[in-house]
Structures are given as structure tokens and as C-alpha cells.
């Protein structure tokens, strides 16, 4: 009787194996069904010859047989092929129909990879139709499905699509966040096309928000990936040209017109090559020449040439762009001609169905000459753009913070593996470390004692520095709360775009200031200049920082930890002055007298109460005491502050 459970389990296992084998045989027979096999071969031949109408008929017959045989695997494949066939003949309705059937069958068969692929394609179709909200939902679903099967490469590619979509409707902050998320998935891969595309998306978002230097930096990162012919082939020549064209546009906005012109002309080596991209570059070159020299015949000729080409290929969006540039070109010399081009640009903008293009055309037209109803339409379009942004921002906020279960499990699994590996490494090296410590204690006891004594001296400085880092971390966490509050506000209200961008700019500058305050300090031969730069960095229209006495030779022979301490204390005093004192003048003198550094710091701010100062200056006092120095101060409320620092050297 004791053997019964084991025997039953054994028999159950055998039964499962038999059933599995039978199922495999059935599947094998289904795939080898002669009618389906013959039709598959015929369909492949028809597709190779481009006879897609006949391929559709044959595929329909194959699907009927597969449904009759209950061959779900081939039904799924057949729906995919029928989607491909209808796509080739340009039948959008049946393309969408079979694309959805493909997804539904994939879902029924729990085929996550094909479900993700179908959703991705649906998103792309909607994106091309400028149905951005629906496209975002499809892309988001596809990304989650890819992550369920740990396909981080395709998830990264989806985030590039999402970033481009958000950039398209002007939601630049969200676009940057999506691109950064995508980089996390792809930065350790060799997927150069998507990686460079993500850096390009960051560059464009930075450019459109006025951070042109950062945009240039991101473009350089994208272009740096095209280091050889193999990498250029992976990224794509057209993409590289697009990156360079955008870099020239950045130089144009920086008013570095000569640099922009050089890049445009490099892109136009083959002037006889009448391609869409070549004409776009010509138009950009013409606009740059206009900005540099005013109206000129070359700009007019290039734009007229591009206009004729775009008319011939009926490229509405490109016509709109060129007509807008022509309206600007003639704005100062021929108002009627300028107005004509502006009106034509507005008509083409309306044809594209892009509210942003209509908004830009109305803006140019109103600047030249406005008519009744222009301002009303202008305000209406602007509101429509803002509503589109808000709707997509709401969707993005929910998608970004709705971390699915599979992602949580993956993160937890990775974390557990890291901890396990770390513990194993510690266990392997523990005995060796102990033996080395004992050997060092036996052989160099005296030197260890001296080292510990010196270490205690430096430890106080490190403790102060560690305190500063913790404070910086805490402030950074608070900045994260600011960002969360701002995003919550975006979800529940109709914010003003400029106000939102201002808030983001404030948050960004605060984070940058915190980072700067905790960056490393150069303590070598360039330390005098480093200290001078510190004073200059706090100089502004509101505060005048004067370095009264300062001999750069006094730092020779002074140890690094003393230099760092002096630098950090002065940095803290300057920061407090900037944030709290409302001072208009700061005077600093740095001298060396009788093997002692003497630093005097004075401001004409509002001063402070001495009880408050004991807490506020505790960190600075600890730093100075750690190097056996002395910090004294003299202050009264509303009468400024005076600090004296003495340090033996």
C-alpha cells in the first residue's frame, strides 16, 4: 500500500507523456495536411511574383481548411499572412480586420510574442493616421507584453516609438522620459539604430524646449555611434543625414549660421540628386541664408526649386514647410507675396490635419496681416493642441507608474541574484582578508597605529562630506516629490504650457545646483583657479562677489584635505548668502600669515539670530574643527555677517 502513491504518480506521468506525444502527432499531421501544404507553396509563389489578389483567394481557402481541422496554429499564421496580403494591395479596412483577428487568435493561444507584435503594428498604423491617443494605448500594451517575456530589446524599441509620438504632439517632457527609459533597456546592446534614435529623440525634445547646447550634445552622442561603415549601415544613411540636418538646425537657432551652412552643403554633395531629403536640406539652407543675409536670390531660388519638386510629388507637409519659409522670406519686401504664401501654407496645413502646423501657419499669417476670424481660430487651435497634450499626458502618467506584475518579479529576481552573488564573493574572500589583516597587524603594528591616527583626523572631514551627500540625496528626493506633484497637477487640470515648462526648468536647475555643490574638487595645481571659479559662479546681477585679497601661491604645500575643507566651507557660506541673506555685496580675503591661513568673509545681508546660527553653521564649524582650525562670526539681525576662519598649515 505504501507503494501506491509512487505507482500512481508514475502511471500519471506515463499518461501525460503519451497524451503529449499524441498531441504532437496530431499537430504534426495538421501541419503536413496536403491541401494546406499545397496552398502554402502556391501562396508563397504568388507573393514572390507580386500577385497578391490571387494570394488572398488561396489564403482564404487555406484558412477554411485550417478552421475545419481546428488547426489553431495555422489559423493564427493564416490571419497574419492575410493581413500582409491586404496590406500589399492597400485595402486598409481588411488590413485592420485581419490584424485584429491575428491578435485575437494569438491571445487565445497565449502567444505573447505575436500579441505584442500585433499591438505594435496597430499602434504604428494609428500613428501614421495621426490618431495619437489610440496609438499610444497600443504601443503601451505592446511594451508591457514584451516585458512579460523579458524581451527588453523590443520594449526599448517601443519606447522610441512612444517618445516620437509624444514629441509629435508637443509633449516634450514626457518624450524625454520615454527616451531615457528606452536607453535603460538598450544602452548595453548593439542595437545602434534604436539607440541613436533615442538620443535623437532626446536631442529634438531639448531643442524644442530651448536647451540647444544639450540638444547638440545628444546629437553628437547619436552621430558618434556611426564610427565605421558597419555601424553606419546599421543606423542607416538616411537617419545619419537626418541627425546632421537637425544639428545644422540647432546651429541655425544658435545663430551660428556659418556652421549650419557648412553642414547643409556637406549634405548636398550630389546636387543633382532630386530626392525628398535633398530638397528639405535645400529649404533649410535657404532659410539659414535668409536669416544671415536677409532676402537674397539664392534663398528664393532654392525655395522655389523645392516648392516645384514638392508640388510634383504632391507632398503636402513639405509644401507647407516651404511655403511658410517663403512667407517669411518675402515678409519685409513684398507683403502681398508673403501673405499669398502664408495663405497657401495654411491651406496645406489644414490638409495634413495637424493642429500644430495650422497653428504655425496662422501665427505667420497674423504677423503679416490678420483677417476677421484669424485670432478666434488661432485661440481655438491652440486650445485643441493643449487638450491633445493633456489627454496623452494623463495616459502616460498612468502607464508609467502602473508597473505590471511580471516587471516587479523580474526586478525582484535580478535583485536577489545580485545579493546572492555578492554574499558568495564575500564568503570566498573572507578567510584571505582575515589572514591579510592579521599579517599586517603583526608586521606593521606601529605603522597601523600611525595610519589610524591620521585616519581619525581625516575621518571627521569624510563624515562632514558624507553628511553633505546625505543632505543632497534628501533634497533630490524632495525634488522627485516636486516632479510627482507637477505630474499629478497635469493629470487633474488644464495647465498653461509656459507655466509647466517654467516649473520643470526650476526643478532641473535645483537638481543641477545640488549636483554642483557635491561635485569633486580639483586639489592639484589648478586649485587656485578652482577657488576663483567658485566665487565667479556666485556672481550675479543681484549679488556682487569681490575677492579683496588673494595670492594664488599661498596654496603651495597645503594638503588636499585642507583645500577641500576650505572650498566646501566657503561654498556653504556663499550658498547661504545667496539663499537666505538677501545680500547685495560679498567681500572675501584669503591670506597666509605665520604658517596660518586667515580667511575673512563679509556680506551686507540681513544677518541672523545667534541661536539659529548654532544649528545652521554646525556643519561648517565641524569641518573647520576637523582640520584644527577655528571659525568665528559676528552678526546681528539686519546688519550683515562677518566670518573669520583661521587654519594652521
UniProtKB/TrEMBL annotation:
Q: Where are the transmembrane segments?
A: 432-449
As one GO molecular function, the record gives: protein histidine kinase activity
Cite the InterPro entries for this sequence. HATPase_C_sf, HATPase_dom, Sensor_HK_TwoCompSys, TPR-like_helical_dom_sf
Stretches assigned to the Histidine kinase/HSP90-like ATPase domain: 564-648
Q: Does the keyword Transmembrane apply?
A: yes
Pfam families the UniProt entry points to? HATPase_c
Top enzyme class of this protein? transferase
Q: Name one GO biological process term.
A: phosphorelay signal transduction system
Q: Which EC number(s) does UniProt give?
A: 2.7.13.3
Keywords (alphabetical) are: Kinase, Membrane, Transferase, Transmembrane, Transmembrane helix, Two-component regulatory system
Keyword RNA-binding among UniProt keywords: no
Quickly give the catalysed reaction: ATP + protein L-histidine = ADP + protein N-phospho-L-histidine
Q: What name is this protein filed under?
A: histidine kinase
Amino acid at each position: 500500500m505504501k507503494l501506491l502513491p509512487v505507482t500512481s504518480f508514475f502511471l500519471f506521468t506515463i499518461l501525460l507523456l503519451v497524451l503529449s506525444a499524441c498531441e504532437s502527432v496530431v499537430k504534426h499531421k495538421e501541419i503536413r495536411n496536403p491541401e494546406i501544404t499545397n496552398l502554402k507553396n502556391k501562396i508563397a509563389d504568388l507573393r514572390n511574383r507580386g500577385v497578391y489578389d490571387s494570394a488572398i483567394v488561396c489564403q482564404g481557402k487555406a484558412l477554411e481548411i485550417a478552421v475545419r481541422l481546428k488547426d489553431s496554429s495555422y489559423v493564427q499564421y493564416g490571419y497574419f499572412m492575410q493581413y500582409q496580403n491586404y496590406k500589399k494591395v492597400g485595402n486598409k479596412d481588411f488590413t485592420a480586420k485581419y490584424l485584429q483577428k491575428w491578435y485575437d487568435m494569438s491571445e487565445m493561444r497565449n502567444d505573447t510574442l505575436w500579441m505584442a507584435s500585433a499591438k505594435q503594428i496597430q499602434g504604428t498604423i494609428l500613428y501614421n493616421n495621426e490618431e495619437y491617443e489610440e496609438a499610444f494605448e497600443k504601443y503601451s500594451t505592446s511594451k508591457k507584453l514584451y516585458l512579460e517575456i523579458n524581451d527588453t530589446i523590443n520594449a526599448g524599441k517601443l519606447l522610441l516609438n512612444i517618445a516620437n509620438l509624444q514629441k509629435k504632439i508637443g509633449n516634450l517632457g514626457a518624450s524625454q522620459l520615454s527616451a531615457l527609459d528606452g536607453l535603460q533597456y538598450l544602452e548595453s546592446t548593439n542595437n545602434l539604430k534604436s539607440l541613436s534614435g533615442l538620443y535623437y529623440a532626446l536631442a529634438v525634445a531639448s531643442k524644442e524646449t530651448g536647451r540647444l547646447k544639450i540638444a547638440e550634445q545628444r546629437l553628437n552622442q547619436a552621430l558618434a555611434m556611426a564610427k565605421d561603415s558597419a555601424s553606419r549601415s546599421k543606423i542607416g544613411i538616411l537617419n545619419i543625414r537626418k541627425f546632421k540636418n537637425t544639428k545644422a538646425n540647432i546651429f541655425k537657432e544658435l545663430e551660428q549660421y556659418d556652421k549650419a551652412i557648412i553642414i547643409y552643403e556637406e549634405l548636398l554633395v550630389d546636387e543633382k540628386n532630386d530626392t525628398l531629403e535633398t530638397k528639405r536640406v535645400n529649404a533649410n539652407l535657404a532659410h539659414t541664408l535668409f536669416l544671415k543675409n536677409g532676402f537674397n536670390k539664392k534663398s528664393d531660388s532654392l525655395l522655389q526649386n523645392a516648392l516645384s519638386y514638392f508640388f510634383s510629388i504632391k507632398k503636402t507637409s513639405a509644401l507647407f514647410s516651404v511655403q511658410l519659409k517663403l512667407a517669411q522670406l518675402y515678409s519685409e519686401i513684398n507683403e502681398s507675396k508673403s501673405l499669398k504664401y502664408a495663405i497657401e501654407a495654411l491651406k496645406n496645413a489644414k490638409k495634413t490635419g495637424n493642429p500644430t502646423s495650422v497653428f504655425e501657419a496662422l501665427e505667420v499669417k497674423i504677423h503679416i496681416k490678420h483677417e476677421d476670424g484669424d485670432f478666434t481660430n488661432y485661440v481655438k487651435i491652440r486650445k485643441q493642441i493643449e487638450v491633445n497634450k493633456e489627454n496623452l499626458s494623463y495616459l502616460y502618467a498612468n502607464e508609467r507608474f502602473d508597473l505590471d506584475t511580471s516587471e516587479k518579479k523580474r526586478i525582484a529576481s535580478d535583485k536577489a541574484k545580485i545579493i546572492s552573488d555578492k554574499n558568495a564573493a564575500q564568503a570566498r574572500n573572507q578567510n584571505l582578508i582575515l589572514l591579510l589583516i592579521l599579517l599586517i597587524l603583526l608586521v606593521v603594528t606601529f605603522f597601523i597605529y600611525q595610519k589610524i591616527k591620521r585616519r581619525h583626523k581625516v575621518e571627521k572631514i569624510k563624515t562632514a562630506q558624507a553628511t553633505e551627500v546625505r543632505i543632497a540625496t534628501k533634497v533630490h528626493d524632495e525634488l522627485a516629490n516636486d516632479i510627482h506633484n507637477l505630474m499629478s497637477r497635469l493629470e487633474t487640470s488644464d495647465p498653461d504650457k509656459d507655466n509647466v515648462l517654467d516649473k520643470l526648468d526650476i526643478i532641473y536647475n535645483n537638481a543641477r545646483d545640488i549636483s554642483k555643490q557635491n561635485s569633486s574638487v580639483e586639489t592639484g595645481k589648478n586649485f587656485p583657479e578652482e577657488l576663483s571659479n567658485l566665487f565667479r559662479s556666485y556672481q550675479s546681477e543681484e549679488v556682487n562677489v569681490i575677492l579683496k585679497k588673494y595670492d594664488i601661491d599661498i596654496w603651495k604645500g597645503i594638503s588636499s584635505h585642507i583645500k577641500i575643507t576650505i572650498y566646501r566651507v566657503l561654498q556653504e557660506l556663499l550658498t547661504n548668502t545667496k539663499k537666505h541673506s538677501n545680500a547685495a555685496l560679498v567681500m572675501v580675503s584669503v591670506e597666509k600669515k605665520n604658517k596660518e591661513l586667515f580667511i575673512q568673509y563679509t556680506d551686507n545681508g540681513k544677518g541672523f539670530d545667534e541661536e539659529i546660527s548654532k544649528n545652521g553653521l554646525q556643519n561648517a564649524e565641524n569641518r573647520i574643527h576637523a582640520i584644527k582650525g577655528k571659525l568665528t562670526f559676528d552678526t546681528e539681525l539686519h546688519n550683515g555677517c562677518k566670518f573669520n576662519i583661521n587654519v594652521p598649515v
